Amino acid sequence: xxxxxxxxxxxxxxxxxxxxxxxxxxxxxxxxxxxxxxxxxxxxxxxxxxxxxxxxxxxxxxxxxxxxxxxxxxxxxxxxxxxxxxxxxxxxxxxxxxxxxxxxxxxxxxxxxxxxxxxxxxxxxxxxxxxxxxxxxxxxxxxxxxxxxxxxxxxxxxxxxxxxxxxxxxxxxxxxxxxxxxxxxxxxxxxxxxxxxxxxxxxxxxxxxxxxxxxxxxxxxxxxxxxxxxxxxxxxxxxxxxxxxxxxxxxxxxxxxxxxxxxxxxxxxxxxxxxxxxxxxxxxxxxxxxxxxxxxxxxxxxxxxxxxxxxxxxxxxxxxxxxxxxxxxxx
Length: 331
Fold this sequence. Notes:
Helix content is about 10%, strand content about 45%. It contains 2 helices and 21 strands. Helix 1 packs across helix 2 (about 305-320).
């Protein structure tokens, strides 16, 4: 699978499902005329309309079905395969690509079919089994069932790329046992967003607990530009995952030495990291309007567009290269 195909595959997955965006109750999205959702859900938990949430002890299993719909007039044939849930580079959930070795809960998922054909304007069900190994770590684990159109399309124009459409239904498995919510702040650096002169503070963090969490970061910088600070609410970080989070900085940063204090809340006990970093060349975001370039000693609001830029790139990088896993490996 070439890089362009992988990128488009990920784009389709991220836009179509995003783990139901840890859904708040919406049905799974339809993409390319087909969609998928759990066959059964818990009426007391609206999120289960979009993805599976099950508590399964070690050594036990469960079976269920995914309902696959085709709203197009023509039949569609789909590949069916398991995937790992991953933390994207800017937090949030993404899924591994087809053909990538499984290392997480995707190993526990076994679909009943490898391909399924859904007739036009109809639906069908695909069964699957989730078997939790005896050596599984306590806590929340995320896998998924991917359904991918076997007919890859070609885009027009001078540069032709392969387009792959797929949707994923998430499978969250909770292995019973003592739960722990904990985040580790490991290190930080100051660097430009790749391919730009936009400054960012890259915070290396890890979910060292056993459950999903959404941390909030407060970064305070002191250096040649004086004192600056900004906050950011992150999306989901999966247990055992570590990411280098690119905290897009609104203000220009001059070359020189900086001291930083980084605080994380919302994932167990408050964590604080103190440190210093050097910047060899000035970083400036020349497109930020003057009205937005105000002192941030009392907090700041980061413009939406660089966040979107980094978020999109982070999603791509996140699934193409994966995340580091920590904690006990599941067998």
